[in-house]
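lol forgot to send this yesterday, sorry. struct tokens for the thing we talked abt
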């Protein structure tokens, strides 16, 4: 199972780095802490995307409209 750095998740979802940290902090996106860094498994990233339908994702500003349209 691939592990993504927060910066990689930020790029994949086209969100600010701090927004990804916020999602992790509030439990919207599951992550594991390794030392001082967080990692998101491929499974948890897919689960996050699947659990947020595109209309909810767009309305909450979680991803750009272009990305959400391609989900």
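and heres what i got for the seq, position by position
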């Amino acid at each position: 199972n691939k592990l993504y750095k927060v910066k990689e998740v930020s790029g994949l979802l086209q969100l600010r780095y701090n927004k990804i940290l916020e999602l992790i902090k509030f439990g919207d996106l599951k992550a594991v802490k390794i030392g001082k860094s967080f990692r998101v498994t491929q499974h948890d990233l897919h689960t996050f995307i699947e659990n947020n339908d595109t209309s909810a994702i767009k309305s909450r500003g979680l991803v750009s409209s272009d990305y959400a349209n391609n989900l």
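The mean pLDDT is 84. anyway ping me if u want another try
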